[in-house]
Amino acid sequence: MSETPPARTGSHEGRPPERAPRRRVNRREQILRTAADAFAAQGFNNTSLADIAAMLDITPAGVLHHFGSKTDLLTAVLELRDSNDPAPSGSGMLDHLVTTAERNAARPGTTQLYAVLSAESATAGHPAQEWFRERYTVLRQEVEEAVLDRIGPEHREAARAPGPSGHSPARSAAAAVLATMDGLQVQWLLDPEAVDMAAVTALVVDAVVAGLSSPPAAEDASGGTGS
Predict the structure, then answer these.
(1) N or C: which end of the chain has fewer CB within 10 A?
(2) What radius of gyration, in Å, describes the C-alpha atoms of the chain?
């Protein structure tokens, strides 16, 4: 015959067991992530607050309770992406770009969101236009500084010198790297197996650094470039 188990100290016989406290739903975060998915799939202009609300089984007023307007919601979605991806300063930024390209291949939803909204923002009156314009301005400056840091002091003066258009080789190199990354995202979204975003990004970064580290082409006696 088995022994009777000892009574628990402080037990309350006859009372129903206490329920575990419910985990509180973070409605604001739910709205953000749902809006991000909707904007990625349909674009900002083709997605209404009613669409987002219906996905969450709430009213449009419930969305506006957390975000004052659809534009405020869009801004919060864009800032959420950036807050999860801080960039280092100096030449480490170039390595970070390659890592970002690799990570983007593992998060297709975020990659699609950025590709769709960045292209859509070029249309007249788009609420994200200023955000993307400022973002590209900052990124060009950061990548330019990273390139200058990596090529070494003996090449920096030439890389900083403005050309006939007023743009320096280093600034043009930064624009080329960013254009490559954005174009790769579209190619990858359309055919993931055909493109290795990280490998191509690394190849282009190495190419622009090598190009800026090379001495200018020598000129022959007649003033033309040597062959």
Answers:
(1) N
(2) 27
Q: Is 100 left (phi over 0), alpha (psi -120 to 50) or beta?
A: alpha
Model confidence pLDDT, tens digit, residues 107-142? 999 999 999 999 999 999 999 999 999 999 999 999
Secondary structure (3-state) at 224 = coil
Q: How far is CA 44 from CA 36, 63, 119, 121, in A?
A: 9, 15, 11, 9
Q: How far apart are CA 43 and CA 74, in angstroms?
A: 11
The closest of 64, 111, 118 to 84, measured between CA atoms, is 111
* DSSP character string of 46-61: T--HHHHHHHHTS-HH
Q: What are phi and psi of 219, to 5 degrees?
A: -105, 140
Query: Which tokens in the block code for residue 219?
Result: 């000129």
- Regarding pTM above 0.85, the answer is no
DSSP string, 156-188: HHHHHS--TTS--HHHHHHHHHHHHHHHHHHHH
Distances (CA, A) of 29 to 26, 32, 67, 76, 109: 6, 5, 11, 10, 16
